[in-house]
Specification:
This protein has 22 helices and 13 strands. It is α/β, with parallel strands linked by helices. Strands 3-9-8-2-7-5-6 form a seven-stranded mixed β-sheet, sandwiched between helices. It has a two-stranded antiparallel sheet with strand order 1-11. Helix 5 (about 95-110) runs antiparallel to helix 6, helix 6 crosses helix 7 and helix 16 runs parallel beside helix 18 (about 375-395). The longest helix is centred in the N-terminal third of the chain and has 34 residues, at about 55-85.
Length: about 550
Amino acid sequence: MRVRKLLKPLAILVGCLLYAVPDWLTDEFGSVTIDQVLYHLRFGTEGLMTSDPELTRRFLWRAVALPVVLALVLWGLDEWVNHLRAHPDKWPVPWLRRGWYWLRVGMRRVGRVLVRMTRHGASRAIPLIVLGAGVAYFIDSFSLARYVRAYFGEDYFAGSYVDPVRVSIKRGKEQPKNLVLIYVESLENTYSDPALFGHDLLHRLNAYKGKPRVVSFDNYHEMRGAHFTIAGIVSTQCGLPLKSVALFGGNAQGEQIESYLPRARCLGDILASNGYTNVFLNGSSLAFAGVGKFFKDHHYNKVMGREEWVNEGARPELMSGWGLYDDDLFRNARGELDRLMKTKKPFNLTILTIDTHHPYGHLSATCERQGYADFEGIVECTAGQVADFIEYINAKGWSDRIAILVQGDHLAMGNTSYDKLVKNPNRRVYNLLIGADKKLVKNTDEVTHFDMLPTMLRALGFDVEGERAGLGYAAIGPAVVPRPADRIARMTEQLMNYSATYRALWELPTTQPAQAGGTPEGVVVTPVPVPPRAAVQRDIVRER
């Protein structure tokens, strides 16, 4: 009997939570997909709630405290109404009794179903309405119906993916160039619109456009599977989307997965096999969203995040909630670049910024001294810091030996300027590709994250067989291989459909040859060895 009494308040509470949690997520992170949620749950959310005290406070208030209070109010209202129905003489004033009477008359005229609910099931009405509304909002917020439908859709990935392991990627006649790859948090072209922001917030970076060795792709589309930070990184470095295989694929990704996309050959793997040293510098924790695991498992020799900077002497009290401010990150990046240049060996230096992270950004001491105070100021200041880093390379006389790609990891999410951003019907990911000692010629303006893998390889001087790697096409140099006219439209509609080929990329390579009939039809299985873990971090504390 006691259990039955608990069902009503529990149903109300669950309904309120099912509304409040996705509502909070949407406000904090913009449109969130179920793939995104499942991915982060599978990899753990280490570093998220501890990274920003304000984020924790807003979560506890918006997603916990408010729905609990609302549930208590609704439960109390339900109990009060039921008590008055059982004891009509307890109605506080006569007009309430009359109001209830006319409400019953009106419901009787609406239909018998509502009448039955009033006469016999009023005690269940509020819990069922709240729970039903919460479930409906939850399903709509995460597009759950579309996610389930995708399991039965056409496998776009299997028919379009070109396994980089099976692509001939050779050095050209000249010595391959070094790479500096800068992912700027949530940077998009819309910030350049003076009509929205009063002036071009990215003017320091845009000043490079039009120069002989520089190209920028005007229609850089953000696709699903590349719409949050780690997804944008994986998409550009591996030429494939990041999506959860958990719901319909067992525990392949796992909460503590054995290896990150072990059968995928990504940028770090390709460059390492050609003698490159790969370094990743990032201000926030490597534990969050599997960022550190991805880079370590794909031949990055040095991987730095918040905890690693603290171990090297950085003071936590001088960091933002996420980690190093971008001014400190770029100061460390200059030192790392100096060291890499002294080795006289080819390298890839990948940097991920954090200060422009939604919703409010993080104002560094440098930006504050320059007079910036709000989110738009942080965007402008961060763009200036990226430009300063490019100018540092030029001032050192290294520009002929280093190719540079600056790009947003994804489009901006729910920040304080979001209302302005969404006024632009054609939002695109910001990008700037600077060649080393040769003029770059783009063959298209319409690109996606997936196209950056073969494009970067070409910019470094590699010959990419068939101009393709992963789902991407090389966007610079001659274009002999035709691009399907409906490529973007098909990806938009079918990219996230279930794919056995995609799922196979998450499976650990086997040392024994596959038995006849052991591989599902149409699955591409590439025996890529798992990178040795012992050597991945060998110089983290030695080199500074």
